[in-house]
């Protein structure tokens, strides 16, 4: 018996879409300067010297520079306490020259990261990390979405993946990734199952999924044998050496659509951050109405 060869999964590439979002954000930033004489400004806050975090902050600041967005860099020593960090962020929240605030995650373990995130004023929460933003996102109200989840749904939209009526399995429940992406998929009428470290029989649950979001933070964790043939697989992991949370080669042979690492979800994260920064500046400076394509804003859920 010959087994017919299955074509490889179609790749959902984020690089091009992210570039388009950045170009559009740059145009809007320039238009805002034309109308108000002010450039959007993103404050980036890094605590400590974790090399990966420093790289991500540098990438964000470089993209800001390219898009005509000012960035203000606040680099605090690893020993900074919660109270000091909260004060610094509250100062940025009160500063009219700053339109968006990003606190790079993770912060050193002795800091209460949630308290620090909550010091970001909702109007400046362009990274979508506060409970306010989570609430508005979950209820489909105007606000900012968490950037990677927002990038994921934009990528799905761009590739014509409609989650409506599909069984979506989210592996991971972190506050800025797993939880919010499940909410955004729910708002798009998916039937959402969250899996996490206490989930039993993960492969069986993943095997029933039409759409899998891997946000677990462990390299090559999701096996190709777990996947339903033809499933849409979003790999939100990023590990040294360009490895994601999904065993890419094995998944590619089974999935219908798959995001690569690098070049999938990662670039979308920064594009959404900049798009939301421009929107925040427009709103604070009395610029144009918000972009109708704004990141992943869900409809109001009904039943
Ligand atoms: N406050 C936040 N902290 C963190 C977030 C976040 O959204 N807000 N996300 C991640 C890290 N992250 C941004 O901070 C991030 C990760 C990866 C990429 C990316 O573009 N990766 C590239 C590869 C980059 C390279 O190594 O050359 C890709 O996947 O193609 C962007 C942003 C945790 N912290």
TrEMBL record:
Residues 146-284 form the Tetrahydrofolate dehydrogenase/cyclohydrolase NAD(P)-binding domain. The keyword NAD does not apply. It catalyses: (6R)-5,10-methylene-5,6,7,8-tetrahydrofolate + NADP(+) = (6R)-5,10-methenyltetrahydrofolate + NADPH; (6R)-5,10-methenyltetrahydrofolate + H2O = (6R)-10-formyltetrahydrofolate + H(+). Gene3D superfamilies: Leucine Dehydrogenase, chain A, domain 1, NAD(P)-binding Rossmann-like Domain. Pathway: One-carbon metabolism; tetrahydrofolate interconversion. Its EC number is 1.5.1.5, 3.5.4.9. The keyword Cell membrane does not apply. Residues 14-127 form the Tetrahydrofolate dehydrogenase/cyclohydrolase catalytic domain. SUPFAM superfamilies: Aminoacid dehydrogenase-like, N-terminal domain (SSF53223), NAD(P)-binding Rossmann-fold domains (SSF51735). Keywords: Amino-acid biosynthesis, Histidine biosynthesis, Hydrolase, Methionine biosynthesis, Multifunctional enzyme, NADP, One-carbon metabolism, Oxidoreductase, Purine biosynthesis. It comes from the Bacteria. Pfam families: THF_DHG_CYH, THF_DHG_CYH_C. NADP(+) binds at residues 172-174. Homodimer. Catalyzes the oxidation of 5,10-methylenetetrahydrofolate to 5,10-methenyltetrahydrofolate and then the hydrolysis of 5,10-methenyltetrahydrofolate to 10-formyltetrahydrofolate. Belongs to the tetrahydrofolate dehydrogenase/cyclohydrolase family. This is Bifunctional protein FolD. It comes from Micromonospora zhanjiangensis. The lineage of its organism: Bacteria, Bacillati, Actinomycetota, Actinomycetes, Micromonosporales.
